[in-house]
Amino acid sequence: MLRWFVAGWVCLLALRVQAQSLGTAYAAVKLNGLYGYINERGKVMIQPQFDEAGPFQGDYAMARKGDKYGVIGRDGKWVVPPQYQTPIVFSEGLAPVVRSYRDSVAYLEPTGKLRIGHRFEEGGGFRAGLAPVRQDRLWGYIRPDGSYAIAPRYQFADQFHEELAVVQQERKFGAITPKGQVVVPFEWENALYFSEGLLPVMKLTKWGYVNKGGAIVIRGKYDEAWPFTEGLAAVNERGRWGWIDRTGKRVVAPQFLVVRGFRSGLAAVQAEDGTWGYITTRGKVAIPPQFEAALDFAYGFAPVRLGGKWGYITTEGDFFLVPQYEDAHSFAGGR
């Protein structure tokens, strides 16, 4: 079975590249039960025709037809026909794939060619030139040619982030370098991934942060803690979310039911009444809570739901595209 690695609130690995000309980023939207794509002008670039659609990563995006996944190009045509059992997410030019849930994991190129054959029990995406894979119930790391850089020895292994990866040994979590050197000792009951130089770690049900040398920077006192984005980290205290800075200083007091990470200086937050809005990195309300749901800003726009339909707003809170879609994703894949 294929294991999918996600960074906290991050479900698929969308490549956020700054668009140099308007219209190059696409967003998947759902109309009449099918997904297609629009650009930043709101123009339909790929007609709705897919049962599921992922973000563009450069010139390619994952899509599903029926119960099988494939890869499409920017013209909406299949580059890799739908034949795989799980979503296809490329990173560093390769994606782990399986044809059925009983199949072993292989690694696919965007052209549809298998670079590494079916041989792993589970596998994650490539980062820093290495991908975590499981073989004989233990995890290690392979190179793009399929050879082992770190032989299977861990109970769990995550992708590399900022040149370090979280791994589990003897039921404890630590972090290693691409050469397998331990930099964060195996003493934590849980850990997420490094972001902006800090790693959220948990011991005795409380979360804190360590640096790349394994030293405690922010002591464990939070019920939940997320990786840092744009200099701040979301933390949960007694069921409410707020934000701290890299010193552990509270920047936004715990007050929100649910939050998302900061993107472009704004974070989506859910207020006590269940509505969603956006705040700034200083905790000021930028867009008052009013939406039924809200996603991240990308390329200046964010998907929000109002009246049961999705549309897109600007960073000022004005509708760029009025609610009209059954579902909508953030823009991605600009170039």
Detail the poorly predicted runs.
1-22
Question: Helix/strand-derived class?
Answer: mainly beta
The number of helices is 0
Total strands: 35
State the end-to-end CA separation.
33 Å
Strand content: over 45%
Q: Spatial order of the strands in the main sheet? A: 3-2-1-35
Mean pLDDT: 93
The shape, in one word, is flat
Helix content: under 10%
Q: Rg to the nearest angstrom?
A: 21 Å
Major sheet: 4 strands, antiparallel
Quaternary organisation: single chain
Structural features, described:
- The structure is a single chain.
- The protein is mainly beta and 335 residues long.
- The chain is built from no helices and 35 strands.
- The strands form 9 sheets. The chain has a 4-stranded antiparallel sheet with strand order 3-2-1-35, with no helix packed on it. The chain has a 4-stranded antiparallel sheet with strand order 4-5-6-7, with no helix packed on it. It has a 4-stranded antiparallel sheet with strand order 11-12-13-14, with no helix packed on it.
- Strand 19 and strand 20 (199-203) form a beta hairpin.
- The chain starts with 25 loop residues before the first strand and ends in a 7-residue tail after the last strand.
- The model is unreliable at 1-22 (pLDDT under 50).
